[in-house]
Amino acid sequence: MAKPPKKRRLSVYLEPDIMKALADYAARREHSRSLVAEAAIASFLSPDAAERQEAATSKRLDQVDRHMTRLERDLGISIEMMAVFVRFWLTTNPPLPEPAQAAARAQAGARYEAFVAALGRRLAKGPRVREEIPEDRSGASSDQPPTASGCS
User: Where is the composition biased (Polar residues) (predicted)?
Assistant: First the structure.
């Protein structure tokens, strides 16, 4: 039976913070610094390291892509919701006569505060509007906005 080849000595210079991290890691794992460094170098030189890194990068990019898709969907919902509301509001609310405009401006602050409070409750308790809308909206006609009577 042949003897395994003797290990050879290698001297390296490490930055102090890297040396401290190596020593701390080796102490936590109850291994020598030499063993930890050897394993790290072997992993770095392994042909699988690049493949593992590529797989991890691909997985992360897929997660980012799914997140961006959800954000795009949510933004589209928000824009459409705002457009439908503005159209409905403009359709159902005629301009106020001059004397009534002053009274409406006086009430605007209180009404806005009530709106913000209601929005805060909705965000805290849910469900979110985006959760009420199905992911697949292929059955809905997206080119025809709802009429004013359908937006109550």
Answer: 139-152
**CA 25 – CA 17 distance, rounded (Å):** 12
47 preceded by cis ω (within 30°)?
A: no
Q: How many CB atoms sit inside 10 A of residue 34's CB?
A: 13
Contact 36, 26 (CB under 8 A): yes
**Rounded Cα–Cα distance for residues 87 and 82 (Å):** 9
Kindly list the domain boundaries of the chain, sorted by start residue: 16-45, 96-135
How distant is the alpha carbon of residue 120 from its chain centre? 21
Instruction: Give this prediction's pTM.
Output: 0.46
> Helices 33-45 and 16-29, interaxial angle, to 10°?
110
Sign (positive/negative) of CA torsion 31, 36, 37, 41?
Answer: positive
Half-sphere exposure of 109 (CA within 13 A, CB side): 3
Neighbouring residues of 74: CB distance < 8 A, sequence distance ≥ 6: 130
**CB neighbours (10 Å) of residue 117?**
10
Cα of 75 vs its chain's centroid, Å: 13
